[in-house]
Specification:
Blueprint lengths: L5 H14 L3 E5 L18 H4 L4 H4 L2 H6 L2 H14 L6 H11 L5 E4 L5 H5 L4 E3 L2 E8 L5 E3 H9 L12 E5 L9 H10 L2 E5 L18 E5 L11 E5 L3 H12 L6
Parallel strand pairs: 1-2, 1-7, 2-3, 7-8, 8-9
Antiparallel strand pairs: 4-5, 4-6
The protein binds carba-nicotinamide-adenine-dinucleotide.
């Protein structure tokens, strides 16, 4: 088979979207790298650069022993947060949902950028920073309370002396919205896999349940071993989505 150009792939994808009645999207850290948030396993990822020891900072057993490495990461993340804006692809997905072409976004990301871009139905399987809880007395804390403690380099503790943890899912904890995400995957006639190495389960298993067509957009090769991969784009996500939105121009209603 001859390799399709990026433009041909954009037009093929536009056709798939226009024919679809139930498009669901799964995203991973790769969708946010162009916003300035490093991923885990990409060429500049946290596992590759070792800027943080991602296996330690997101491990619940480690956090309970020593929350400092996580809160050092949280300081950098929160300090960046107000400056980070959604990428063209986050905005394109919100636009496609507004036009009725996308039914839901399932994300492994904790950065809240889909919500910032205006997506309404977002299932963040790994949670986000917007709320936190004391692990001892379960008292809830909002983002501003957490933010102010973290930015003062204070490891957040509750008045009961319990440690406060943002409601993001660590390795060793149950993901959120798994059953809803599975149902969405099982109902999709078109399913996008965007910017994920598909290495973290159970989110990585979702494409296996899709009865419809799969579209993969990732700059490194992802082996899904599925008969129903209709399109595989090995390129930059924003580059591809800019082309896709061009190809859809005038063919969507709002
Ligand atoms: P991952 O394993 O780091 O994979 C990301 C994939 O995206 C890699 O295969 C990259 O090659 C690819 N990629 C990166 N940038 C681009 C780009 N611009 N264009 C095309 N492809 C690109 O990340 P996963 O999401 O698969 O792993 C799941 C982890 C990562 C979840 O637990 C997340 O919470 C966690 N994470 C989230 C964020 C965030 O919220 N932005 C950042 C870092 C890690």
């Amino acid at each position: 088979m001859t390799k399709q150009s990026l433009k041909e792939q954009s037009y093929r994808c536009a056709q798939l979207i226009l024919q679809s009645k139930n498009t669901i999207v799964l995203t991973g850290a790769g969708i946010s790298t162009n916003a300035g948030i490093p991923d885990f396993r990409g060429p500049q990822g946290l596992y590759t650069s070792r800027l943080y020891d991602a296996e330690k900072i997101f491990d619940i057993a480690y956090f309970l022993k020593d929350p400092k490495p996580f809160y050092e990461f949280a300081f950098d993340f929160i300090a960046l947060e107000s400056k980070i804006i959604p990428t063209p692809t986050h905005r394109a997905l919100a636009h496609l949902e507004g036009s009725g072409k996308i039914k839901a976004v399932i994300t492994q990301n904790i950065d809240g950028l889909h919500q910032k871009a205006g997506s309404q139905k977002v299932l963040d399987m790994h949670g986000n920073f917007l709320s936190s809880h004391c692990l001892k007395c379960r008292k809830p804390y909002d983002y501003q309370e957490l933010r102010s403690m973290v930015l003062q380099h204070i490891i957040p503790h509750c008045s009961c002396r319990g440690i406060i943890k943002p409601d993001i899912v660590f390795f060793g904890e149950d993901v959120k919205y798994y059953h809803q995400s599975l149902e969405l995957a099982q109902s999709a006639d078109l399913f996008f896999v965007i910017g994920t190495s598909c290495a973290v389960y159970p989110a990585a298993s979702l494409p296996q349940f899709v009865p419809g067509k799969l579209v993969i957009v990732n700059n490194t090769k992802i082996e899904l071993n599925r008969y129903n991969v209709a399109l595989e784009v090995e390129n930059d996500i924003d580059l591809f989505f800019n082309g896709l939105m061009q190809a859809l121009k005038g063919r969507l209603t709002l």
